Amino acid sequence: MSILAAIPSPTQGVWELGPLPIRAYALCIIAGIIAAVWLTDRRWRARGGAEGDVLDIAVWAVPFGIIGGRLYHVISSPRPYFGEGGDPVRAFAIWEGGLGIWGAIALGGVGAWIACRRRGIPLPAFADAIAPGLLVAQAIGRLGNWFNNELYGGPTDLPWGLTIHDWNGTGAVLGADGQPVVLGTFHPTFLYELLWNLAAAALVIWADRRFRLGHGRAFALYVASYCAGRLWIELLRSDPAETFFGVRLNVFTAVVVGLLAVAYLVWQRGRPREVITRGRDQREAAGTRPGAADAAPAVPVRGADPADEEAPVEAEPQRREEP
Questions:
Q1: Domain ranges of the chain
Q2: In sequence order, which residues have a C-beta less than 8 Å from that of residue 52 and are 6 or more positions away?
Q3: What is the pLDDT of residue 44?
Q4: What pLDDT, in 10s, does the model give residues 251-260?
Q5: What is the mean pLDDT of residues 18-41?
Q6: Alpha-carbon gap, residue 83 to 247, rounded angstroms
Q7: Helix (H, G, I), strand (E, B), or coil: what is residue 175?
Q8: Residue 170 CB: number of other CB atoms within 10 A?
Q9: pLDDT (tens digit, 9 = 90+) per residue, 173-204?
Q10: Which of the 8 DSSP states describes residue 237?
């Protein structure tokens, strides 16, 4: 009865379209990236950024992020690849699932920094624009875990318990009666994180509007709020993971990264939001080639340099209401 009352899980995660396998996990990741780019573009242009900046930066950040996410996953869960009976070649099989958000953000940030530097855009300002978009992308990406019947917690008979099937990598294992084999009902930790991420995205958008966050503070709020949720959700998960002193590695990561984000918020408190100039439009008007001499500061802020206290400050461009 509890299984019938539980949240169902898909019995198939891959569909064959001729020789091309269509994987639900990959589709969810792609959908999350598209949503993040769309939302970030709206926020960036509302802050005064140039149209096209976000897409150009995503070209660098997304591949770096995917590589970083996979590296973190393999390093933090090495047994399926390098343990007894493991297959090292599968470490490259990103399409099978397994991306660590910590590595994705870290290495994706490197890609974003390279792109921002080429365009003369300050990374902290861009990070503030992308913060809620990342949370939305993570929420959509968690649907891929649902399709893969993975990332669930301990057994439960709660009404929102999640039905989990015995899984062979692409679909549910069929029993002698031809029906999918059900392992039981478990805490849907993927769903807990999905809902938490959406709530955190709303929090970041609200706080950014209310307090006009700048200089990376919106991004720090994203990190702090995500880590707070990941901490208690990680403690519910029952899938295999590397542990230290009996505690999952991701619990330590959430605590350390979360505290660093809070410290940054405190350190940067009270700073006014940057004025983002349309650097690309100005370069084109001046006849300079894109990417050349992008080291000039693109965010004049009153009082940032005591020596410039009497210098005129560029008026902030009129902004559309940002999401």
A1: 14-155+184-294
A2: 280
A3: 96
A4: 999 999 999 9
A5: 95
A6: 20
A7: coil
A8: 14
A9: 999 999 999 999 999 999 999 999 999 999 99
A10: B
CB 154 within 8 A of CB 238: yes
Segment 8-12 long-range contacts (CB within 8 Å, at least 24 positions apart): 8/163, 9/146, 9/149, 9/162, 9/163, 9/164, 9/165, 10/146, 10/147, 10/149, 11/165, 11/171, 11/172, 11/180, 12/170, 12/171, 12/172
Q: What is the token pair recorded at 145? A: 């875990």
Name residues whose C-beta falls within 8 Å of residue 298's C-beta, 6 or more positions apart in sequence. 120, 121, 122, 276, 277, 279
Contacts of 233 (CB under 8 A, 6+ apart): 189, 192, 193, 196
Q: How far is CA 4 from each of CA 8, 149, 156, 162, 164, rounded to the nearest angstrom?
A: 8, 17, 13, 10, 12
Express each pLDDT in 7-29 by its tens digit: 999 999 999 998 899 999 999 99
Q: Which residues contact 32 (CB under 8 A, 6 or more apart)?
A: 136, 137, 138, 139, 140, 141
For the beta carbon of residue 146, count every other beta carbon within 10 angstroms.
23
Confidence of residue 88 (pLDDT cuts 50, 70, 90): confident
* CA gap 184, 103 in Å, rounded: 32
Identify the CA nearest to 33 among candidates 138, 131, 111. Answer: 138
b/e per residue 6-40 (b: at least 16 CB within 10 A): beebbbebbeeeeeeeebbbbebbeebbebbbebb
